[in-house]
C-alpha cells in the first residue's frame, strides 16, 4: 500500500494539458518552422517526440524574454563581457526564429562574438573563467549555424572562422587545459560539420576549414598546417574524447576530397606532421586513399 498520491497536473492551471494531440502537434510544428527546421525533419520530430517533450519546447519558445531583441543582446555583450551576457546571447540564438536571426546578422552580431573571442585571446594570461567564456562564444557560433541562414551569415562574415579557430591555440591556453579541451571540442565539431554541409547550402565548406587551419598555423608560427592538431593527437595528456574529435576532423577532410591526387597530397601533409607514426602507436582509424 502506498500513502503517496500520484501528482497530477490540473488542466485549468496548464492550458497545454487540456489540448488534444493534434493541437499540440500543430503548435509544435509552428515552433519548429520558426526555428527553421527543414520540412522532413519537422515531420520526423513530430512523430518521434513524446507529447510532454513537445509541450516543454512550446512553453520554452513562448516564455522567451520579449525584451531580448538582437540589438539589446548585442549591446549587453559590448557593454561588458560577462558569462551572463554571453549565455543570454547563446540561449536567444538557440531559440531564434528566422526574423530574429536575420536581424541579429544584419546588426553585425557575428562581429560582437568575434570581438569577445579576440579580447580574451589577447589577454596576457587566460583564466579558467576566460576559457568558459570562449566555450560560450563557440556555442554561440554553433547555435547560429544550426540552419542554412545562420551558416551563410557566419561563413560569409569576413574573418569569422579565422577568429573562431584561435580558440584551438593551445599555447595561449596551456594553463587551462581541462577547459581548453571543452571549448576546443565545440570548435572541432563545427569544423567537421562545415566540411560535410551539402554544396547547395554552402560551397567550398572544406576550403573554408582548411583556410582557417592555415590561419591558425600562421598565428602560432608553426611550419606545417596541421602540426598543432597532430601534436595534440599524440600527447598523453590529451583526453581520448578530444583525440576522437581530431581524428573525426582528419577523416572528414580526407573523405570530402573528390580527387585522389588531392587526398594523397593532404595525406602527405598529415604524415609530415607525424600522423603516420602516431597511427602505429595508437589504435586510430584514419581514412585511406
From TrEMBL:
<dbReference type="InterPro" id="IPR014768">
    <property type="entry name" value="GBD/FH3_dom"/>
</dbReference>
<dbReference type="Pfam" id="PF06367">
    <property type="entry name" value="Drf_FH3"/>
</dbReference>
<dbReference type="GO" id="GO:0008360">
    <property type="term" value="P:regulation of cell shape"/>
</dbReference>
<dbReference type="GO" id="GO:0051015">
    <property type="term" value="F:actin filament binding"/>
</dbReference>
<feature type="domain" description="GBD/FH3">
    <location>
        <begin position="16"/>
        <end position="289"/>
    </location>
</feature>
<dbReference type="GO" id="GO:0005829">
    <property type="term" value="C:cytosol"/>
</dbReference>
<dbReference type="GO" id="GO:0016477">
    <property type="term" value="P:cell migration"/>
</dbReference>
<dbReference type="InterPro" id="IPR010473">
    <property type="entry name" value="GTPase-bd"/>
</dbReference>
<dbReference type="GO" id="GO:0030866">
    <property type="term" value="P:cortical actin cytoskeleton organization"/>
</dbReference>
<dbReference type="GO" id="GO:0031267">
    <property type="term" value="F:small GTPase binding"/>
</dbReference>
<dbReference type="InterPro" id="IPR043592">
    <property type="entry name" value="FMNL_animal"/>
</dbReference>
<dbReference type="InterPro" id="IPR010472">
    <property type="entry name" value="FH3_dom"/>
</dbReference>
<protein>
    <submittedName>
        <fullName>Putative actin binding protein</fullName>
    </submittedName>
</protein>
<dbReference type="InterPro" id="IPR011989">
    <property type="entry name" value="ARM-like"/>
</dbReference>
<dbReference type="Pfam" id="PF06371">
    <property type="entry name" value="Drf_GBD"/>
</dbReference>
<dbReference type="InterPro" id="IPR016024">
    <property type="entry name" value="ARM-type_fold"/>
</dbReference>
